[in-house]
Amino acid sequence: MDRAATMRGWPNVEVTIVEAQTGVSGYMAWVAAVAVWATAWGVAVGVVGVSVLMAYLRYANTRARPCTAPDMMKGKTVLVTANDDGGVGEEVARDLAGRGARVMLATPTLARAERQAAAITAFTGNEEVKGLQLDTSSMASVKQFGKQFITTEKRLDVLVLAAGRGAPPNRTETEEGLEVTLATNHLGHFLLVNLLLGVLMTSSPSRVVVKASSAHYMLSSITPKDLNFKKGDYGALAAYALSQLCNAFMATNLTILTAGSGLVVNSACPGLVLSEPYLSPGGVMAWLYDAGLSFVGRTPEQGAQTLIHAAVSRQGASISGAFFTDCEETKLTGLAADAGLAKKVWEVSEGLVGLLPQDHE
User: Fold this and answer.
1) Which residue of 25, 32, 179, 219 is most buried, as measured by CB atoms within 10 A?
2) Beta sheet of 158-161, edge-to-edge order
3) pTM across the whole model
4) Are 161 and 134 in contact (CB under 8 A)?
5) 217: exposed, middle or buried (Cβ count in 10 Å: 0-12, 13-18, 19+)
6) CA distances from 345 to 27, 215, 249 (A)
7) CA angle centred on 187, ends 240 and 116, rounded to 5°
8) What is the pLDDT along the chain (361 residues), one digit of tens a residue?
9) Which long-range contacts (CB under 8 A, 24 or more apart) does 21-28 make?
């Protein structure tokens, strides 16, 4: 007997089934309504929460304190590393040139370095601004630059290490087998400062200012023997944060090694800067990061202020091994405060760049 016949033959069963079906449907409709309401409420709370957070970040990040140090730089020789597209490095060079310094601005492409130098001269009226070629992602380029510099230059009063890049979505190596983020942001600068250490020491009192973003606070642990991410899992944010932590470590250990020499070494955070993304283009995370950065990011000029402060102010000359944020000294915490770990990273960096004892005599 088919189902329809059974239903007609047993009306009580039919009613029971229909009532049961109606009850289930009503219950499911109620559950669905609650789910929709909860989702809508959650989305609304999330949107409001994110909006409040972004507004706070915009307020906190874009109210960067300007460098108010009045100190002039007449007679000082300055070298600033920067990116081809300018950014923080170019703004530092512009400010120091405006204070009368003789400025050398080094970027990966000579034509762009010369173009930036010409723009700085036009803006400041300082004719002693020169563009040079230096690619910090290439240790060969750094070695060539260092050799030429110490041959032609007898003085270096201030070295500002401001070049850098965001981390790519996937691990990428340079031609020399180095992870590109670490190479560009840290290893190239590590090698450069060691190659120029002799001229810096003979020019004392002199200064080294290392750009080290507070992004390094994202890390809770590192493996010094695997700075290149050859064994561990690669993550773009982790790679960028590691390069910044290594820069902070570099400043810490160099301070210890040069104590009493008249060389002052400090690190400085530029904040979240529009021209200095943590992540290179590519992937959803980079897109979301860029979207957020466009709302909360500082201008390159704002981002340069703390590095300028460390390079020119009397405070920047009176302390060494400090970390500056918003033109104020800030105590390093977490991993960055571990001097023992800083020494280990220094030693690993020496091996990665092939630094020989005679290179920094």
Assistant:
1) 179
2) 129-133, 102-107, 77-81, 158-161, 206-211, 263-269, 323-325, 328-330
3) 0.82
4) no
5) middle
6) 62, 17, 7
7) 80
8) 444 444 444 444 444 444 445 455 555 555 555 565 566 556 555 555 555 555 545 445 556 678 888 889 999 999 999 999 989 999 999 999 999 999 999 999 999 999 999 999 999 999 999 999 999 999 999 999 999 999 999 999 999 999 999 999 999 999 999 999 999 999 999 999 999 999 999 999 999 999 999 988 889 999 999 999 999 899 999 999 999 999 999 999 999 999 999 999 999 999 888 766 776 666 666 667 566 666 667 889 999 999 999 999 999 999 999 999 999 999 899 999 999 999 999 999 999 999 876 665 5
9) none
Q: Which two tokens stand for residue 299?
A: 């201008």
Residue type, 52: V
* Cβ(84)–Cβ(108) below 8 Å: yes
Question: Which candidate in 27, 217, 234, 240 is catalytic?
Answer: 240
Number of alpha carbons in the 13 Å side-chain half-sphere of residue 221: 2
